[in-house]
Amino acid sequence: MIQQNGRTATCFQGLLNELVPGQLQSWGLLDVLPLFLQGQRASKTRFVSPLEHLKLVRVPTYGTMILQNEAVQEPLIVPMHIGFFQVGAQNHATSRTLVLQAGETLTVEDAFCIQATQGGLLQEAQQRFIVLPLGLRTEALKLRGQSGYSRLWPTIDAYNRRYGITRGGHLERFLRPYFHRLMRFRHAFELLPEQVGAAYFLGGNLLGVEVGPDAAYWQDVGPILNIYSYGAAALLAERYRWQQKRQTIDLESVKNLDDLERCLSEVRQQEMLERVDLVYALSNLAWKQIPGEQKAGLQIVDLEQGEWSGQSVQDGEKLLYLSVFRDILV
Amino acid sequence: MDKHIFLRYLENRRAPLGRQDEAVQIHKALCEAVPAFYQHLLVDALSHVSHKREVLVNLLETQIERQRLLEMLRQLQVDETLAVLDVIRDLRINRSRARELVLEALLGHEHLPTLAAVKRQRVAHLLRHVLGERTWSSIKRSLAHETSEGEVFLQREMLRYAWQGDRARLREILCFLSGVPFNVTQPDLAKVLAARLDINRGQGLPMQTLSGLRGSYHPKLSFRHVRRLAAQNVSYTHRDGPLTAALRERFSGKQNAIEQLASSEQASDGQKSKLEETTPSPESDKALPTLTGRVALVLDLSQSMVSSGERLYHPAALALVLTSLLRASLGEMQLYQLGGSADLATTELPRPEGVADLAQGLLKAASARAQIVLLITDGYENFRQGDVALVVQGLRHAGYNAPIYQVVPVYAQAEDLSFRRLSENIPLLPLGHEQEVREILARILLATADEQLTEQELHQLQGLLVVR
């Protein structure tokens, strides 16, 4: 595999068409394979970043969120399963990917309450958001399009119990005590220039693939996914005493520094190839693609394949946004 | 003098000293072998206060002049002075030399009123120990009932030590310490006395003092109320050095300005590095010595060195400043830059960006056969976590035994670095301020020196350790 500016020459086909992998990064049990667009494409597209332009107008009733795209001209792709937290109000999260046209205010009626016994409704805010932990996302996606603000509570309850936390549909009971450990995943993985997505591995197993429309979008959303979604999965795997399957070097056979350098390169290359092969295989699976909502000329597509599920946003044949994942810790 | 003893001291000095520690033996060895050097460790800027206390205990055994000890104690902060002198009471040291030192250092201190106000019990206990129970009682009696004999006694025992001969001030403080009624004029003492009646009038006093007042005079008051009144503990407030602060300012929000500056300067005839421009020459710093020796520095400028929140750009800025100061102080330094938007060897100031292959960087540095290798990094090894540890093992196996240090720019010394340690087999130096470049230079000096340090090297080492 030839490296060019931190990217490798292999281009995926199928679901991840036009994407190429970068240099594998590993920290603890979590590995991240950065994804880039093949060839030179503008690092900024017509889509704005949700961190800068997504505004939570309010939560009028439990389970309903009103969101607004503050950009005047550009549409906004709202990543799947984002959650808002406020003190003294019941925290909420979305159940699916959304597309907002420039300046549009959208009422989302299939949101979840993620804080069971807290009263109060979220107020207007333009603030940072989280993404639901990976362990909740499969179920959350299944429950999209339904009503009932409390429908994710049993899943949150079961999720918290995996961490030995008090019962109840309170996601903050997991996030608060573990926040300082989750934050490490923000700095542990480097965001690279031109990076538009990443494939995540846990203990060598492919866990999810996330792609944004451009590098600016990924610079904002990537760290949030690292911290709250995949970082949370890595913490749980640590708790379950998973071990990283890592190739090592037989130091007895090392004679000099050149030898050591060669051995290191070899094991890294081998590990990298194994991870890329997994993504390649995933990309070429026969995905069940169910077209959903169409908006601003964009198509939201539901994706299913065995234990994998997710959604994508496409502009014709071009993939703009993708989030596919599975929960291998259950 | 064997350099390994100094190395062991450097490794131990930041941690609290236990009485049975190996560090106690190191102190004894240093005191016996190089007493002239050892006395300066009393004002070692980075050592834990327990080490300074040990230095004082050992120095009290030597022939060092009391006046010399006093001069050095006065270089310490007032509360640190008390903490150091307190060892005399803790170890029950009863010697006229110790007694005189305490009386001169404490009673003759400019900030004694503040110290007495906030640490009343500790100051009083220390005075009572060095004077003895009977003398202390006589002093109390003389303060309470003015007689000519009493005045003579007070003058002889206490008042002659008064700061700038201000006997009235010292008398007032002694009354406060011994619980004798008096007319208060010192504002710090007045505040504490007022707080005894109404805790709200003690606003701005340290938390510890207010807690003591609460326990004795306002036991029903909530801790929350006391916390609200307490002064912010300034020792926890982070302050960047001037160079680090300037670089952080340049990085945050002014990235385009840096690029413009870089391009405009490249176009001009002055090919001076942006970092050199930000960083004054070491001559302007407090006399950093020029060291010789082959040093290799692996500098991590990956994206994670940006950090976030209040730490934004702190690791990268401090790492760059340390690099620049080291480069200016060292005759020969091989720099291996990992990540970054530009090459530090060129005239551009690099921003943290991309990934850092620390293991490969270490391998390259070792290949240059450096006498010491420094890895300046935040410790987030993500190319493949564990590879640095593997490379260190491999290097040792291949016979490369030069010291390797991981230098981590930290925002607060309390940061948990356990998950950022690259290898158990290399020491980790957490540095929070550009002044602490001296810590690295001391290690370089010791790594490149022969087994036995020369007088000149000892002098250089002293200069590196004691500048405050």
Task: Provide structural commentary.
- The complex is a heterodimer of chains A (330) and B (468).
- Chain A is built from six helices and 20 strands.
- Chain A has 330 residues and is an alpha+beta fold.
- In chain A, strands 3, 4, 5, 15, 16, 17, 18, 19 and 20 form a nine-stranded antiparallel sheet that branches. In chain A, strands 13-10-9-14 form a four-stranded antiparallel sheet. A three-stranded antiparallel sheet of chain A has the order 6-7-12.
- In chain A, strand 6 and strand 7 form a beta hairpin.
- In chain A, helix 4 packs across helix 5 (215-239).
- The longest helix of chain A is centred in the C-terminal third of the chain and has 27 residues, at 257-283.
- Chain B has 468 residues and is α/β, with parallel strands linked by helices.
- Chain B has helices at residues 3-12, 22-33, 35-38, 49-60, 66-73, 78-90, 96-107, 112-118, 120-131, 133-144, 148-157, 167-178, 187-197, 207-217, 223-229, 242-251, 255-267, 274-278, 314-329, 358-367, 387-397, 437-448, 455-466; strands at residues 291-301, 330-339, 372-376, 404-409, 428-431.
- The two termini of chain B are 25 Å apart.
- In chain B, helix 21 (387-397) links the parallel strand 3 (372-376) and strand 4.
- In chain B, strands 2-1-3-4-5 form a five-stranded parallel sheet, sandwiched between helices.
- The longest helix of chain B has 16 residues, at 314-329.
- The interface between A and B is medium-sized, with 32 and 33 residues.
